[in-house]
Automatic annotation (TrEMBL):
Protein name: 1,4-alpha-glucan branching enzyme GlgB
Function (record text): Catalyzes the formation of the alpha-1,6-glucosidic linkages in glycogen by scission of a 1,4-alpha-linked oligosaccharide from growing alpha-1,4-glucan chains and the subsequent attachment of the oligosaccharide to the alpha-1,6 position.
UniProt xrefs under InterPro entries: A-amylase/branching_C, Branching_enzy, GH, GH13_cat_dom, GlgB, GlgB_N, GlgB_N_E_set_prok, Glyco_hydro_13_N
Organism in which the protein naturally occurs: Cyanobacterium stanieri LEGE 03274
Domain of life per record: Bacteria
């Protein structure tokens, strides 16, 4: 590099116009003679009045001069070698010594990294982009890298430079990524990227690959190290890796952390599995706050364990700016929300779940993102993550933007993000939100507001390929996990692998069953006789996909009422209707998901701003419903016939589905062991039936292993005194039958006791 740089070059640095400030700033070799080298060191220090170069190895200090600009300093040093020099900077009456970031020229991103990223196949790109604590030349600091290919310039802002974008200008490598190593920064550093487009507009952005963010309404990213937590769930992960979840009981407790329960500084959370005197939103102290992940582990895990659920599903916990979005408008895809604690706190919570035998599913939102200025929208001054054409790139009904799945780097961002949550946080599954909105180009759009695909159709081919890629990737790395689609249309083979032409999920929410059930149970029981098809229709297609039966948060908001408000009758009948619905759900083929508050019969809709109505557990009927759930989950988990063959046609068999006059259905659930089966009889009216005959395939004593009308649950306690012997009476095409008492609005489960003889 020539000793004399031009004023134009200096102006490029001063005005933040240079794509590679390393060409001007830092240390450069000017000449080399035998035994001696001449170096020039240049620094742009916008707030400095004086500057010196400190060469520790030479034990010398060199004053820097400003020839071209008052804040542009340089000096020449003659020596054999000059390594790890420092700058002493005087700003007014203050003085500080720093390592010059522009002497560290090594890049941690290789050409191969960038090749894979541009191809869309760098599965762990989060280990390269973002902010990472590393060492260069023996000096510890933070390496920053951000994808902003269309930006004119990018700088790093933070407390360390008074949020001044002139001080830490990044360099562009391979015309794709901007990078800079800033020495002596560490974990906990707050930062953003200052991005300038070619028109000179400036955008302050959080890090798309940032591992942590400030608590809203602040939006800075925070440097974090995700590899320091010591996990204790190796046995859980090993068992998961060797287990097919489709053959296992899966009962999911879906919840929103921020509205499950609040606490206060003076009152730590209690074990709500046993405690009924609970602080609610209405009687909480003024300083009521969210539970932390640590506190959640202390209170939620015992509660869920007592209820018998196998999994917890968390509404989106990636960082989001607005509580009222429930987490579905994400700005920090790689940052768990700081509302509830640090990344390590979340790791502790998941670790504790695993140690207590509970899996963790996270809602994942790859379908859209908000327009907030610090987020992904118009990231580098162009439509980088989203489509530029609003007919493809905007959900006007939601006020959000749509990812450009056809862009390799965007697809890579999302695929790596799904993998990231399994890799770094040991989650056990993702529930993918709003899949239908991704699959159809005309989703929630009028004619003329959408663009057809290359074949003239409405299918989003790029989104289809993305979903296949993300599912193929996560299952390849983490066998035994769950990938659940919230897909509300008749798109074929959602839960089939890509090699069969499917989307690659291993489960799909059964939205048809949900709508049928809610419509049916909302009717006065007298009218149910005319709508038997609502109960039976799902059996025609239950094995066409790997279905998850879900009664989710979406069904108890926006004026839809909570579950107990949906069903008719007086209070006794309402609780009986709920027990009947939930019992039928757990006897029906498919895995199960239920939203918080349903387990104890909350009367009001879910409100994201309030706690659940925990005070209801002071009332017997609500406590009994909670106990009913615990027993229902225990029966479900202990009987392979209720879960082993959920997705096989042979796992279900009607006994009688045609008794619409009484609104009664009966069927058999079968396990892989042909001798293991359960008879289920459902009476969906308040009218009990004595001497109701049901055909069964084998003779013997059938124990009544479950009765939703039990007095323990608040029922009328009608039943069959523990079970019934068969009669040699051909009925329902079976050689034997049972003479049963069917309780009102009741569901019975009976199992052949092979150890009991007539003698």
């Amino acid at each position: 590099m020539p000793s004399n740089i031009t004023s134009q070059q200096v102006e490029q640095i001063v005005n933040n116009l240079h794509h590679d400030p390393f060409e001007i700033l830092g240390i450069h070799l000017l000449s080399q003679e035998e035994g001696e080298k001449t170096y020039v060191i240049r620094a742009y220090l916008p707030k400095a009045s004086e500057a010196y170069v400190i060469a520790p190895e030479l034990r010398e200090e060199y004053k820097m001069r400003s020839h071209h600009h008052p804040n542009f300093f340089e000096c020449e040093i003659k020596t054999e070698e000059l390594n790890n020099y420092q700058l002493k900077i005087k700003q007014g009456d203050q003085e500080k010594v720093i390592y010059d970031p522009y002497q560290f020229k090594s890049s941690t991103i290789t050409d191969y990294d960038l090749y894979l990223f541009q191809e869309g196949n760098h599965h762990r790109i989060y280990e390269k982009l973002g902010a990472h604590v590393i060492e260069q030349n023996g000096v510890k600091g933070v390496y920053f890298a951000v994808w902003a290919p269309n930006a004119r310039n990018v700088s790093i802002l933070g407390d360390f430079n008074s949020w001044d974008g002139r001080e830490h200008q990044m360099r562009k490598i391979n015309n794709i990524v901007w990078e800079l190593f800033i020495p002596e920064l560490d974990i906990g550093t707050h930062y953003k990227y200052e991005i300038k487009n070619w028109e000179g507009h400036i955008y302050e952005k959080s890090d798309p690959f940032g591992f942590s963010q400030e608590v809203r309404p602040k939006t800075a990213s925070i440097v974090a190290d995700l590899d320091t937590y010591q996990w204790h769930d190796q046995q859980w992960l090993e068992k998961r890796r060797n287990t097919d979840p489709l053959n296992q009981p899966i009962s999911v407790y879906e919840l929103h952390i921020g509205s499950w329960l609040h606490t206060s500084k003076e009152q730590p959370p209690k074990n709500y599995g046993q405690q009924t005197e609970i602080v609610t939103a209405s009687d909480a102290k003024p300083d009521a706050r969210f539970l932390t992940y640590y506190e959640l582990a202390e209170s939620l895990i015992p509660y869920v364990k007592e209820l018998g659920y196998t999994h917890i599903e968390l509404l989106p916990i990636a960082e989001h700016p607005f509580d009222g979005s429930w987490g579905y408008q994400v700005t920090g895809y790689y940052a768990p929300t700081s509302r509830y604690g640090s990344p390590e706190d979340l790791m502790y919570f998941i670790d504790q779940c695993h140690l207590h035998g509970i899996g963790v599913i996270v809602d994942w939102v790859p379908g859209h993102f908000p327009k907030d200025g610090h987020g992904l929208a118009f990231f580098d001054g162009t439509h980088l993550f989203e489509h530029g054409d609003p007919r493809k790139g905007e959900h006007k009904g939601w006020g959000t933007l749509v990812f450009n799945y056809g862009r390799n780097e965007v697809r890579n961002f999302l695929v790596a993000n799904a993998l990231f949550w399994f890799d770094k946080y040991h989650i056990d599954g993702i529930r993918v939100d709003a899949v239908a909105s991704m699959l159809y180009l005309d989703y929630d759009r009028e004619d003329g507001q959408w663009v057809a695909n290359d074949y003239g159709g409405r299918e989003n081919i790029e989104a289809v390929e993305f979903l296949r890629q993300v599912n193929g990737t996560i299952f390849n790395y983490f066998p035994g996990i769950l990938s659940i689609a919230e897909e509300s249309t008749s798109w074929a083979m959602v839960s089939r692998p890509p090699y069969m032409g499917g989307l690659g999920f291993n489960m799909k929410w059964n939205m048809g069953w949900m709508h049928d059930m809610l419509d049916y149970f909302a009717m006065d029981p007298w009218f149910r006789q005319f709508h038997q098809n609502s109960v039976t229709f799902s059996m025609w297609y239950h094995h066409s996909e790997n279905y998850m039966l879900a009664l989710s948060h979406d069904e108890i908001v926006h004026g839809k009422s909570n579950m107990i408000g949906k069903v008719p009758g007086d209070e006794w009948q309402k609780f009986a209707n709920l027990r009947s619905l939930f019992s039928y759900m757990f006897a029906h083929p498919g895995k199960k998901t239920m939203f918080m508050s349903m387990e104890f019969g909350q009367w009001t809709e879910w409100n994201v701003w309030k706690d659940l109505e925990w005070h209801l557990l002071n009332y017997q009927s609500h406590r009994q419903l909670k106990g009913f759930f615990a027993n229902l989950n225990d029966i479900y988990k202990s009987e392979p016939a209720l879960y082993e063959r959920d997705f096989e046609e042979e796992g279900f068999q009607w006994i009688d589905c045609s008794d619409s006059r009484h609104s009664v259905v009966s069927f058999i659930r079968r396990a892989k062991n042909a001798d293991d089966f359960i008879v289920v009889v459902c009476n969906f009216t308040p009218q009990p039936h004595s001497h109701y005959r049901v055909g069964v395939p084998e003779a013997g004593f059938y124990s009544e292993i479950f009765n939703s009308d039990s007095k323990d649950y608040g029922g009328s306690n009608m039943g069959n005194l523990g079970g019934k012997w068969t009669d040699e009476w051909f009925f329902h095409d079976y050689p034997y039958s049972l003479d049963l008492c069917l309780p009102p609005l009741g569901v019975l489960m009976l199992k052949l006791d092979r150890d009991k003889s007539a003698d």
